[in-house]
Amino acid sequence: MHPIDTDARHSRRAFLRRAGHLGLAGSAMPWALSLAAMGEAAAATATDYKALVCVFLYGGNDYANTVVTYDEASHAAYSAIRIPQTQGGIALTRDAALAATRLAPTTALAGGREYALHPSMTAMARLFGAGQAAVLLNVGPLVVPLTRAQYAGVNRSTYPVPPKLFSHNDQQSVWQASSPEGATIGWGGNIADEFLSSNGNALFTCISVSGNAVFLSGDNALCYQVGTGGAVSIAPARSGGSTFGSRKVNAAMAQLIQQARSHTLENEYNRVTARSMGAADTVNSAIGAAYASGTFPASNSLADQLSMVARLIRGRSTLGAKRQVFFVSLGGFDLHDNLIANHGGLLGRVSDAMAAFQAQMDNMGLGNAVTQFTASDFGRTLSSNGDGSDHGWGNHHFIVGGAVRGKAIYGTPPPVSVGNTSADADQWHVGQGRLLPSTSVDQYAATLAKWFGVPDADQLRILPNLRNFGGTANGMAYPRDLGFMTS
Q1: Bridge partners for 243 per DSSP
Q2: What residues form DSSP beta bridges with 133?
Q3: How far is CA 30 from CA 20, 37, 201, in A?
Q4: Contact 208/223 with Cβ under 8 angstroms?
C-alpha cells in the first residue's frame, strides 16, 4: 500500500474509533465503562502468564555514551568528535572502567566493530554476559524505510517522515502511540486489547506505576494507575481512615459516594467510584508485603516502580491476570549540559533497577515469562555542544529477560561520523551525528508482540506503519521479526 494511503486510512480509522468512543460516552456510558465488555475485541487467548514492561527514559537518552563504540578505530573517531574529557569534552575514555563493561556477543559484529556499556552499567553488562540481555542498535520512529537522500528530499508522499521530529512531547507520543502529542491510543494498549478476555479482570491488564501513559491506552484497554506504595485510594475508602477526625464520618462518606442514585449521571459516577474503590482493595490485597530492604536498590525511583511491578506480578492470581503490560519511567535525560556529571548516575539507576527486577522474576520462576525493554523520546547528537548533546532521532536500546536471545547485538552498527565523511555515513546520519534509524519502532514492537502471543495478522492493526516493513528496501532487509525473542 502506498504510504500516503496508509496514513489516510489510519486517520479515518482513528476518527471513526474516537467518534464511536464519544457516542458511547454520551449515550451508553454504563456499557462503555463495563469491564466485562472491554474484552469483546480480544483476538488471542492466553493460558500461561506473560508480561511486558516498558522502561521509558524521558528526555532523550544519549546513545553514544550509553552503548559506547569500543574497537580502537571507532573509539578514536568517537573521541575525536566528542573530545576527550581531559580536554573539556564528553567522550568516555577507553580505559579499564570501560573495558569492564565491554560486550562480547556470541556472534561478533562485522568489520571488527565492538561496543561497551557506560561504566556505570555493570549490572546490565552482567545480564548481557549471562544471555539475559540484548542490545538493539539505531532504532527509532519511521513511517517507511528511509535513506538520508530520501529524508532530505521533497517527495513526502512516497517518503514520509515521522511528525514533529526532535520535539520531546511529540516524539514521546510517537514512540508510544505512532502519533504526535494528543494521541489517545498506544501500541502497548492495543497489544493488551488482544488478551482482555483471557484476564479475570480486564482492568488490571495495563498498569502504569508512572502516571498516565498513552502507551497503555488501547481501543478497549484502560491505563490503570498505581503508585509505588500501592493503589491510589479515594480517601473514604482507606481502611481504618478518618474524615474530619471521625471514622463514623469516613464510613458515611464512603457510603454516600457509592450508593445508587436516581439521576443517571450521578448513579454512573457512584458506580465508577465504587468500582475504583473495589479495584484498590483488590490491588492492595494482591501486592502483599513489600520486598525486604536490599532486594531492590535504595534511593532509586525506577527501582521503586519496578519493585511495585514485581509485587503486582507476584499477586497475578488475585488480579486474575494471564497477560499484562506495565509502564515505568525515569526522567532527567535531556542533558544539553552536564552530560558527564549526570548521565552516569541515571544509567546506573536504570542498570541496577532492571537487573534487580530480573533477579526477582527468576526467583519467582518467571524469568522467561517477563520481558523488560527500554524506550526514550529520541537519541541525541554525536557531536557535542560543549557540555552535552542535542536532540537526535535513532537510539540504542536494551531488551532484558529469560526469553531474550541475549548476549547479542541486533541492528546495524552506524558509522561513527557526523554525517559528511563517507557514503556509509551519509546513509545513517542526518547531520551532527543524529542517527537516521535503520530499524523502526514498529519492528521493535512487532517482535515483542509476537512473543507476547499477538497473531501476525493483528499486528498490522496494532502497528499502523508495520505494513511498510517486512521486505527489502534500499538494499537492506527490514524484517517484522528482528529475532531477539525466542518463540
Answers
A1: 246
A2: 400
A3: 15, 10, 17
A4: yes
